[in-house]
Specification:
alpha/beta, Spore Coat Polysaccharide Biosynthesis Protein SpsA, Chain A, five-stranded mixed β-sheet, 20 helices, about 35% helix, about 15% strand, elongated
Length: about 675
């Protein structure tokens, strides 16, 4: 570009600590086939090497202009860029993103040919490993002819409202609101459309590459108790251009905000607060009088989404460290006192071995069900050595806190389960899990509770009966509980039993069932070891179905059924488990230790779980990303699990220290 050449497009790049990504961004801008551009880089008080990179690039190409300012946020940085811009049109690019070489040339040709004021084009989200994770296509919006905003097709209201992915005619009066942490792009975009009624052209090509990363200050901001989207809605609603718009335009814009709220609520990486939902309810009430909203796409969906996600849903685990010698000695003593054979299959050591399943089950819950409110871990006083009990989401509940003293100590999971409703601070809605239950894919609350608050119950058809299973304790307790319900509630549940996986419960139903079968519960809670003719928690599921008139979903849990959503797998063939999880990931799965499982199987299991759930959570102590388990080179994609070769005896060596999360990331 010569000194006298007309600047056609000003590209504004806000930059705050972009040292890792800035060179790729700037190179993509300098490689534009349209040469008559200026690149205005706003250094928003960066504390890394971003400014040095900018200065190096600016020394080589005069089209790069640097504006330095104190850290004031992305909106203030863009406003500074608008003031500096001298092009007829303006484009916004974030400092960690990049655009294709022909972006400016094709957009400029389109906007001048159509005599338009705005061009919109496609973008794609790219993971930090260069994997495309999402894209926005404009297939439903015609490329020709261009249209004015006030006459735009309805699909236009649901495009991405970010300011990148677009070319705007520059108006010096256009500005970003600087006190918004989220939704500032949407406010700018809709204000621009309402204020200038631009003629809009569409290019259905992917020009913009959005880097999806976890450490960005401008992306994926942590959601706090304040709903920033509602704040942005209110900011736009008081502007004169919005007030003067037709009710139909207003309703479409509000419905687009409702879509954003639906997404934020259903994808929140943390539990949203009561204050947050109060603000969303306020928005719903505030816009309820708009005449067209009920007929649009997302307003009603938002109401349903809030109804489902605003419930506090807790997760309850039973856990025991069967490797604890003191606990095993105590168990053996009480078995002798109670006349129980310690070698009985239901009391064998394999059922209580600690293979670190709880640690990975918790990781799976946080990864695939981050909306879970509190997690209660019921133990006999034991605490996993890796668990930081000070974390506010985790609570250890000793047996004596929920069970009568006369029933302690106990070695009977069924007895403990009868007392779950006694957990202090337990929410009305809760899930129950054993430590070998895992979340396998993203789940929403409505997978467990419907819009009316009823548990979504999944059951399996088994050919079990009291007459045919006298030697199987678990099956007998299920059948005994079912027979009690059928007799007392005058129902018939046939051969239905639970899925042996994560199960939803209502605290009120749990307590009511205990009261209805008070005599049976009183006997069961005092059984220190499992007995055949005692109730277990499945009775609450039957009771809830009967009382709330719930029709269960009949499912298959077989490992070879690729359609099964909740799979039960035995820990005696880790390779088969791995193949099943790689082909079609079930929503839930259980890896049940088995009497035929070997110590080598259990070792392999830990490698498998570390591969599936490698990210350390905030409630774990300093174990590193995978607890050191992957340091031996576990190759997940190739279904390769390391097997240790026998070696001659050596003197004992100190185990290597596990990497920190930051080192592992590097």
């Amino acid at each position: 570009m010569t000194e006298k050449a007309e600047i056609k497009i000003s590209i504004i790049v806000p930059i705050y600590n972009m040292q890792k990504y800035l060179k790729k961004c700037l190179n993509s801008l300098l490689l534009q086939t349209l040469r008559d551009i200026e690149i205005i880089c706003i250094n928003d008080g960066s504390t890394d090497g971003s400014l040095a990179i900018l200065q190096d690039f600016a020394a080589k190409d005069k089209r790069i202009k640097i504006v330095n300012q104190k850290n004031s946020g992305v909106s203030a940085a863009r406003n500074a860029g608008i003031k500096k811009a001298s092009g007829k049109y303006v484009m916004f690019v974030d400092g960690d993103d990049w655009i294709e070489p022909e972006t400016c040339a094709e957009c400029y040709a389109k906007i001048t040919q159509d005599h338009s004021d705005m061009v919109v084009f496609n973008f794609q989200k790219i993971h930090s490993q260069n994997k495309i994770v999402a894209s926005d296509k404009l297939n439903t919006i015609p490329e020709n002819p261009p249209f004015f905003f006030k006459n735009c097709p309805s699909d236009f209201f649901y495009i991405m409202t970010s300011v990148w992915g677009k070319l705007f005619r520059l108006h010096k009066a256009m500005t970003f609101v600087i006190n918004l942490k989220k939704g500032e792009d949407a406010v700018f975009f809709w204000e621009y459309c309402l204020k200038y009624n631009p003629q809009i052209s569409v290019i259905n090509k992917t020009f913009y590459n959005y880097l999806q990363r976890g450490d960005s200050t401008m992306k994926d901001e942590k959601i706090t108790s304040e709903c920033e989207i509602v704040k942005s809605i209110k900011t736009l609603a008081i502007k004169s251009c919005f007030k003067k718009a037709s009710h139909l335009l207003q309703s479409h814009i509000l419905d687009r905000f409702a879509q954003s709220l639906c997404y934020e609520i259903s994808h929140a990486p943390i539990v949203l607060s009561t204050d947050y939902f109060a603000q969303v309810h306020n928005f719903i009430d505030m816009v309820s009088h708009y005449p067209h909203l009920e007929d649009l796409r997302y307003y009603q969906k938002l109401r349903d989404t809030v109804s489902v996600y605003s419930r506090k849903i807790d997760l309850v685990y039973l856990w025991v460290n069967g490797n604890d010698e003191e606990w095993r000695a105590q168990k053996k003593y009480w078995a002798e006192q109670c006349g129980v054979n310690p070698d009985d299959v239901e009391s064998q050591a394999y059922r209580y071995k600690d293979n670190q399943e709880l640690r990975y089950s918790l990781r799976s819950a946080q990864k695939f069900a981050p909306w879970i409110n509190k997690i209660f871990i019921i133990t006999n006083g034991q605490v996993p050595e890796w668990l930081d009990t000070s974390h506010p989401k985790i609570k250890i509940i000793p047996h004596e806190q929920i069970m009568p003293k006369s029933a302690l100590p106990t070695f009977n999971a069924g007895a403990i389960e009868t007392c779950l409703a006694n957990i202090p601070e337990l929410s009305e809605f809760f899930l129950f899990a054993n430590d070998d239950f895992f979340f396998g894919s993203p789940l929403k609350p409505d997978y467990f509770f419907d819009a009316e608050g009823k548990p979504v119950i999944r059951m399996v058809k088994y050919n079990w009966s009291l007459d045919s299973i006298q030697n199987t304790f678990y099956k007998n307790t299920v059948c005994y509980s079912r027979e009690l319900i059928n007799k007392k509630m005058h129902t018939s549940f046939g051969k239905l039993a639970g899925t042996y996986n994560v199960v939803p419960y209502l605290k009120s139903m749990y307590a009511a069932c205990a009261q209805t079968f008070a005599e049976e519960y009183a006997y069961a809670v005092h059984c220190k070891f499992i007995e055949k003719s005692t109730v277990q928690r499945t009775i609450v599921t039957y009771y809830t179905m009967s009382k709330m008139n719930i029709q269960p979903k009949i499912v298959n849990i077989h490992i070879k059924d690729k359609q099964a959503e909740a799979v039960l797998m035995k820990l005696n063939n880790v390779q088969e488990i791995l193949r099943r999880l790689q082909t079609t990931r079930p929503k839930l799965f259980c890896i049940n230790d088995h009497e035929t499982s070997t110590d080598k199987d259990r070792e392999k299991l830990q490698y498998l779980l570390a591969a599936f759930f490698p990210v350390q959570q905030a409630w774990e102590k300093d174990y590193g990303v995978d607890g050191g388990l992957l340091s031996n080179g576990f190759i997940f994609n190739n279904i390769k699990i390391p097997e240790k070769k026998a070696e001659p005896a050596k003197k004992e060596e100190t185990a290597p220290k596990s990497e920190s999360a930051d080192e592992a990331k590097k």
